[in-house]
Amino acid sequence: MPPLTAMDSLATSTARRWALCSLLCICLFSAGLLLGSRPFFFPPPPPWEWEHFSRLQQPPAPRPPPPAATAYHDHDDSTAPAPDAGPGDLASEEQEEQDEELAASAPAPAPATDGDGEGSGKCDVFDGSWVRDPARYPLYEAAECPFLSDQVTCRRNGRPDSGYEQWRWQPRGCAGATRLDGSTALEQCRNRRLVFVGDSLNRNMWESLACILYTALPDRSRARVHDISSEYKIFRAMDFNCSVEFLWSPFLVQLETKQDRTKALKLDQLPAMLQRVIGADVLVFNTGHWWTHTGKLRAWDHLERNGMLVKMEGEEAFSRALRTWARWVDQNVKQTKTRVFFRSISPQHKGANWCYNQTAPIAADGAIVPWFPKSMVSIVERSIRSMRTPATYLNITRLSELRVDAHPSVYSINRDGKPLSLEQRQQPIMYADCSHWCLPGLPDTWNVLLLASLIMR
Ligand SMILES: *[C@@H]1O[C@H](CO)[C@@H](O)[C@H](O)[C@H]1NC(C)=O
Ligand SMILES: *[C@@H]1O[C@H](CO)[C@@H](O)[C@H](O)[C@H]1NC(C)=O
Ligand SMILES: *[C@@H]1O[C@H](CO)[C@@H](O)[C@H](O)[C@H]1NC(C)=O
């Protein structure tokens, strides 16, 4: 199957061919203005044209400010000692051991629960089952959301079945409090800035929320998608002063290309561009898949801490990186202003639960053989427990594990960013994508649960 690494670099590879037809688009755009009939402002653009259409819509590109000169450094406590740094010169190593102990004794992270359920505390929105609900789902049609990327528009790529779009997550005993309609979502986003930070699975989630909001707009011409770079995207609903952003940072910690072109993963440092998200109203982080890549797919050549090469297992590195992230949140996020979420690991369906040809979810009590080490999940949960700024854990791993039917499989794109050819579709072992999720589809539910959790504060 195409590795995530390759998928993630696709965004840039397709840019060139869009540039070619931009002239044509300018003409179309002017024609649309002349006609002035907003609902038919444009015929649904062919899939490959949307991205540069959205670029056209942009006002003169407001370049983001260049990243601050210095990256956040986890051990750079010299100027402002971390509130939890005990006796001034506590070595970082000891500090980390302390954190570890703290983590071990802390109570479990509070999952976002549904306050509206009978007897609050009893209702866990992440525990439940999938029910078919074609009256309410999908929340939008793919054709209505022209900025959906080729990677995830399964129907447009030829997927013949559509049942996978019609499932609603039914939390056990939560009295329907997790139903969502687009206008409620828009109101929730009013005067707010939501930022997703993470890998392409969080981009999947960003696209989903942008579509939910966009299709609910009374006037869709009052929305913009800014592709500032392949690593930074913004959706804006202008009449609602609502913005939903995506910042690509698949490890959360910094991956740095050295002068000799080797890549160092700095376990104690976050990318400088993360400064940009400080002050947002809602932050949704994730990381996971990239840590499990091995061999040629592994993105780093070596690991670094305190500016020195270190050797450790992937899981230990993952754990250290999450602690760096947790401390960054503790030190930079104002609890009164910002609500922090961590989205749990999104399951891939390989091996025994291969996604190819699947058209129905696994029954709630069905057998699931998770592809990822369970220990990764506990590392995440432990890191969140140890935070002073509580992050809400969006515990979507299990409910997503059941959705073996919801991946693009062979209705995705190849390394060149083009929908798979018939020939390629017949080689699912090579090409099936069982990591990302079709849209409309499962990530819509993640967003329903995210927005529900925001209300339940
Ligand atoms: C996440 O959900 C799973 C399955 O419902 C559950 O076993 C696990 O304890 C939950 N984790 C947390 C931290 O709530
Ligand atoms: C618009 O939203 C931002 C948050 O993204 C907020 O800081 C600002 O105050 C809002 N503007 C108005 C006029 O409410
Ligand atoms: C997948 O589905 C197609 C069409 O229904 C069928 O021809 C093919 O044999 C199936 N492949 C597998 C591996 O199940």
TrEMBL record:
The biased composition feature labelled Pro residues covers 59-68
What InterPro entries is this protein classified in? TBL (IPR029962), TBL_C (IPR026057), TBL_N (IPR025846)
Name all Trichome birefringence-like C-terminal domain ranges: 179-452
GO CC annotations on file: Golgi apparatus; Golgi membrane
One Pfam family of this protein, by short name? PMR5N
Q: Where is the composition biased (Low complexity)?
A: 80-90
So what family is this one in? Belongs to the PC-esterase family. TBL subfamily.
Annotated protein name in UniProt: Trichome birefringence-like N-terminal domain-containing protein
Native organism is Hordeum vulgare subsp. vulgare
